[in-house]
TrEMBL record:
Residues 17-347 form the FAD-binding domain. Residues 366-387 are annotated as: Disordered. InterPro entries: FAD-bd, FAD-dep_Monooxygenase_BioMet, FAD/NAD-bd_sf. The keyword Flavoprotein applies. This is Monooxygenase. Keywords: FAD, Flavoprotein, Monooxygenase, Oxidoreductase.
Length: 452
């Protein structure tokens, strides 16, 4: 059944939809899991040879939490996550701005913040249990589509399906091959040093400048200053610790998750700051230096014949300050699976067009919060922030966090599909007044000219 009680068997087709998904990150796994739950046949391809517990802290808001909960994964995921009661936000000098209470549940669901690799493993195992045909060491090098099918070439083998979903991450090949769109990432002017480590043996629990982060279960502390902010938290009852520090950096625009950072560079950023910052940062045995690049929204996420879509980071990379990149990737996957359930294989391209229509503006609004949140913290005036803590508190807005992607897709699909059938397909617009409107309009013109 759908969340609003509608029957799951809406399409009249006698055969399941066949779907190939490229990339077993959170976007690809979400699409694969929801597709199996909707009865589709799924092949999921990833070039990695075996699953490794990679990355560090990742955050899923309640809009993603309700998806995990519907899949029955709460009991597996929750013990691995941070259990936070309060967010202590300070000025760079150490004055407390706010001790913001955090609710375990918001808008009816939990937030899940934990180690990316550990949470990823749970979804990965769940996809296999549901019968996803998961193929590793499968490097996809070509995409194709015609009026009847779409497919890929993986390790030289040609595979075909009703639709293909490119969920191949921020450096997506699908984006370039499917859309004919080679985007040039621009430096955002910022980079992040990040670390995740075991508290025991790090000294963090022995130093009065850092022990409060682990000694009474999980805790969450932040500091904000001109063009820099630092966040640190513990998880699993204070067993693991992670921190991120976002700072000005115009030196390099290479994106990478594994670029090693130098601890002396990290400590230099906070040399005049509240000494608690250096005390926490210095306990990490190592850290990663991750450059943040900026991309304008793509003019479209779908191929000319609407049998191939890009989703997740391949379609719309997020700045971490939105705290929404992974959640939006999950919403994408679920929406495609529901749409395909409603369209059936015969009208599969309609479901891909409807996917873009349903998601494009919402994703862009969510993406913009990455810039507005960052600017709110990086441009805050210390005195004003202490006087008016709400001006720098974490945003907890219902339109973003209360959204139910599955329910929304069930409700929005019929009218969206009808509109496309009656009026033809038109690329979606950015929200009114968007800062990137002019650039995206130009990119769209170029894209459409090529399409003719
Ligand atoms: C190793 C790794 C570590 C990360 N760590 C963090 C973290 O600590 N914190 C955080 O907030 N975010 C992290 N991210 C990013 C985060 O997972 C994403 O921003 C978000 O979850 C959206 O995911 P996605 O599925 O769109 O993309 P991704 O998670 O990037 O997944 C894309 C997948 O596509 C596969 N792929 C790419 N090209 C091909 C190809 N040609 N053929 C077959 N497969 C292909 C990749 O191997 C990868 O598994 C990490 C991503 C990766 C890949």
């Amino acid at each position: 059944m759908s969340p609003n009680g509608a029957s799951d068997s809406k399409s009249n087709s006698e055969r399941p939809v066949k779907i190939i998904i490229v990339g077993a990150g959170f976007a690809g796994l979400s699409c694969a899991i929801e597709s199996r739950l909707k009865g589709h046949d799924v092949i999921l391809l990833d070039k990695f040879p075996k699953l490794k517990v990679l990355g560090d802290i990742i955050s899923f808001g309640p809009n993603a939490g309700r998806i995990f909960e519907r899949w029955g994964l709460h009991d597996k995921m929750w013990p691995l996550c941070t259990h936070l009661k309060t967010f202590h936000l300070n000025t760079w000098k150490g004055d407390l701005i706010t001790a913001q209470p955090l609710n375990e549940k918001e808008f009816g669901s939990y937030s899940y913040n934990g180690h990316r690799g550990e949470l990823h493993q749970i979804l990965f195992d769940h996809a296999v249990e549901l019968g996803v045909d998961l193929r590793l060491s499968a490097n996809v090098t070509e995409y194709w589509e015609d009026d009847h099918a779409a497919g890929v070439v993986s390790n030289g083998e040609r595979l075909s399906a009703d639709v293909v979903v490119g969920a191949d991450g921020v450096r997506s090949k699908a984006r370039a091959m499917v859309l004919g769109y080679f985007d040039q990432p621009e430096p955002s002017g910022y980079a992040i040093y990040r670390a995740w480590f075991t508290a025991k043996g790090s000294g963090i629990d022995e130093d009065p400048l850092s022990d409060y982060l682990v000694k009474d279960g999980d805790a969450f502390y932040g500091w904000i200053g001109k063009d820099v902010h630092m966040l640190s938290s513990s998880s699993k009852g204070g067993k693991d610790v992670s921190w991120v520090i976002t700072h000005k950096d115009t030196a390099d625009i290479e994106e990478s998750w594994s670029f090693p950072g130098k601890m002396e560079d990290v400590l230099k950023i906070v040399e005049d700051w509240d000494p608690r910052c250096a005390a926490i940062l210095s306990k990490a045995p190592s850290c990663v230096d991750w450059k943040l690049v900026y991309r304008d929204p793509l003019p479209t996420w779908i191929s000319k014949k609407a049998r191939i879509a890009v989703i997740g980071d391949a379609a719309h990379p997020f700045l971490p300050t939105s705290i929404q990149g992974a959640s939006q990737a999950l919403e994408d996957g679920v929406t495609i699976a529901v749409n395909l359930k409603l369209s059936g294989p015969e009208e599969a391209p309609l479901s891909i067009q409807a996917f873009e229509k349903i998601r494009y503006q919402r994703v862009r609004r969510a993406q913009r919060t990455g810039e507005t949140n960052r600017d709110k913290w990086h441009q805050a005036d210390d005195k004003k922030a202490v006087e008016d803590p709400k001006s720098v508190a974490l945003n907890r807005e219902e339109w973003l966090l209360g959204h139910d992607a599955e329910k929304h897709a069930w409700e929005a699909y019929p009218d969206t599909a009808k509109d496309i059938k009656e009026h033809g397909y038109h690329l979606p617009e950015l929200p009114e007044g968007d800062v990137a409107a002019e650039r995206v309009a130009k990119a769209r013109e170029e894209y459409l000219a090529k399409a003719m």
